[in-house]
Automatic annotation (TrEMBL):
Pfam families: ADH_zinc_N (PF00107). SUPFAM superfamilies: GroES-like, NAD(P)-binding Rossmann-fold domains. This is Alcohol dehydrogenase-like C-terminal domain-containing protein. It comes from the Bacteria. PANTHER family: QUINONE OXIDOREDUCTASE-LIKE PROTEIN 2, SHORT-CHAIN DEHYDROGENASE/REDUCTASE. Signal peptide: none annotated. It comes from Pseudonocardia kongjuensis. Residues 124-217 form the Alcohol dehydrogenase-like C-terminal domain.
Amino acid sequence: MDGEPGRGEVTVCVAVPGPVDAAAGTGSGRHGPGRTVAGTVTVLGPGVPACLRGRPVLTRAEDGVADRRLVVPADDVVVLPGRPGPEPAAGLADDAGTALRALALTPVRAGQDVLVLPAATGPGALLVRLLTDAGARVVGVVRGARAARSALGLGAVHAVDHGRRGWVAGVHALLPAGPAAVFDGAGGTVGRAAAWLVADGGRYTSFGTAFGPAPDFGPCEPRARRITVATTS
């Protein structure tokens, strides 16, 4: 849909179109055919709060619609963490591309338990929303109360602070059988701990190394635990 936004609507400049996902929901909770797309709010219709201008968001596009400018109800956008301004569109395109590559490498079914870290910024934030839309139960690993609120707002069912002692035990208590998939954008000691949590027969995908190198599984661990290991790089 193109044109100028009406009352209660916004124009979203699409950075990266997402995959078709007929089951995914919108920010308002309504469901319909289409796909999740990432973009930036560029134009506000009457009655829309000014704070939405320039914000990076997720929204829905109908199947077959390839427009780079979408007019959608303001209630149907999910605001992502990030500062408004001219830069978000380029950064969002990179983040969305990384998130979509991770999902292509590691398909997730509705009802599966998934661990995402970090879950409140960059590709991790997009993954939380996309996985939630697909019906997965997402536990987000974050740092700090503000990031926890962001992850929960994006759809995570729980947010665990890796800055607190015992966070790994906390995740294990929430997912005693282990997550079916781990999406790790952290690396370092945090990523290694998350890798140990993967359920036998599960999947581990590295999409970033914010805190250090991706875990080195060695030649034997994936085979012994029947883990599928992938990386977006």
